[in-house]
Specification:
alpha+beta; Glutaredoxin; 4 strands; about 35% helix
């Protein structure tokens, strides 16, 4: 399972998502992840909307194996439901 996190600097939920993905990778629960800084990469919300396949209003936007799952809250839920890591940091 590969995780892509689309975020921006200064976003606390982007930091939480990155930390959670790091923990998952260290635990061997995922094959890897990539954090994409949308500002540094010049990716607009319109560009991201095309990648995600639905309107994008907030970041992070998280994709697992090419399936958009939502933001940090949905990522945390996914990890819990699939028993990938516990305990998961709650915000």
């Amino acid at each position: 399972m590969f995780v892509a996190i689309f975020g921006r600097p200064g976003c606390p939920f982007c930091v939480f998502a990155n930390e959670l993905a790091t923990r998952l990778q260290q635990a061997g629960a995922i094959d890897g992840f990539r954090y994409v800084d949308i500002q540094a990469e010049g990716i607009t919300k319109a560009d991201l909307q095309q990648t995600i396949g639905r309107p994008v209003h907030t970041v992070p936007q998280i994709v697992i194996d090419e399936t958009a799952i939502g933001g940090y809250t949905e990522f945390e839920q996914y990890v819990r439901i699939h028993g990938l890591l516990s305990p998961v940091r709650s915000v």
